[in-house]
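Need the bound structure for adenosine-5'-diphosphate, inputs here:
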Amino acid sequence: MAEIVLEGVDKIYGGGVKAVDDLNLRIEDGEFMVLVGPSGCGKSTALRMIAGLEEISAGTLVIGDEIVNDRPPKDRDIAMVFQNYALYPHMTVEQNLAFGLKLRKVPKPEIARRVQEAAEMLGLEPYLKRKPGALSGGQRQRVAMGRAIVREPQAFLMDEPLSNLDAKLRVQMRASLNQLHERLGVTTVYVTHDQIEAMTLGDRVAVLRDGRLQQVDTPKRLFDAP
Ligand code: ADP
Ligand code: ADP
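Answer from helper R.:
Posting the output first, comments after.
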């Protein structure tokens, strides 16, 4: 687990678009932070900078106790969950969960332990021998989350992970995400344009607009305000 600190972070894209403008945000160790705001406000860009998928144009980014401005994604000890699940179609669920750990040469018994634990947490045990094509959208999204969990990273980064699911599944997955966060307590940054997700998931919610941080507070104080 680790805190994530952004200090004066800017992102200016090639065309001169200032997608993120002087972002200052401290995400505490173990906190579930939601970045919310309308399309184009810079949420994904902020998340991708934390992941190292996008260079920062100015400012400082800290993960744990290290400045990671120049670190590639693989040296950041974070795991990202995307809305398009990016599963390997020819592999079983179990193989999908294990694959990244195998590449990292994690010992087999350790892989088995982590896969088992993630499958149990996510209710995926009955599906371990199936391939993604034989799963529902919700099950696939759980596998994608499982692949992040088995890495045992310092932080989870999630970009609209529920947006491809129907309304009923989204409700279920919100409950699952809350449980997972309670159980694992891993620092999480979660991007959504959906206020209900922000309210039900976030320990705190950061509201972005035109690349700027407008407000950051608990959901209660943000949304129950008179
Ligand atoms: P959000 O996730 O809130 O929808 P984004 O971070 O995707 O917002 O985009 C913020 C702004 O940056 C938008 O104006 C968008 O058009 C622009 N933008 C995003 N990605 C790129 C890119 N790769 N190149 C140029 N401009 C981009
Ligand atoms: P896979 O995730 O495809 O099973 P790896 O875990 O070995 O395979 O990932 C290959 C590279 O991509 C690594 O350098 C890793 O840092 C990066 N990577 C893979 N998955 C994620 C993720 N969920 N979040 C962030 N980076 C990832």
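Comments: The chain has seven helices and ten strands. The radius of gyration is 17 Å.
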